[in-house]
Design brief:
This protein has about 150 residues and is an all-alpha fold. The protein has four helices and no strands.
Length: about 150
């Protein structure tokens, strides 16, 4: 049942997210609007579009949420595997389950580490520039061309 619903949700999300689906919806609204004078803009005429859009919206919310939940879980699993296989700190695995306060603390820690790394990179770049300018000033001057003796 889960696999069947997942396939249905994926297919529906793919189809309804297409330009063709959008154009069909625009066409339906235009046709509905054009029939307004025929039905004298009656309450029934208005009820048709209201009911149709409400039902479609209600159902699409669940399909979209299902698709996003699966996508999010897949991405999280891939990120956890990258963290596990790399030299990154294991404390980042499973952080999607932390509270907002815990995530804020972890984010602040990452920002501090980022600023520290940026300062180290800037210091290293400055040292490379200083070495390069010292090596240019220490380099031996080119030999002057030999002067010809005047006769």
């Amino acid at each position: 049942m889960d696999r069947l619903f997942a396939r249905f949700a994926n297919a529906t999300a793919r189809i309804t997210g297409s330009p063709l689906a959008f154009l069909l919806c625009v066409a339906a609204v235009l046709i509905w609007a054009a029939t307004g004078p025929v039905f004298q803009f009656s309450e029934t005429w208005q009820l048709v579009i209201n009911t149709g859009t409400t039902i479609i919206t209600f159902l699409m919310v669940f399909l979209i949420q299902n698709t996003q939940n699966r996508d999010g879980a897949a991405i999280q699993t891939k990120l956890d595997e990258l963290i596990r296989a790399s030299d990154a700190e294991d404390e980042f695995m499973g952080i999607e389950k932390l509270t907002d306060h815990e995530l804020d603390r972890l984010h602040a820690k990452c920002q501090r580490m980022s600023h520290s790394t940026q300062r180290l990179l800037e210091k290293a770049a400055a040292e490379r520039r200083a070495r390069a300018s010292r090596s240019k000033s220490v380099a031996k001057p080119a030999k002057a061309p030999a002067r010809r003796a005047r006769s």
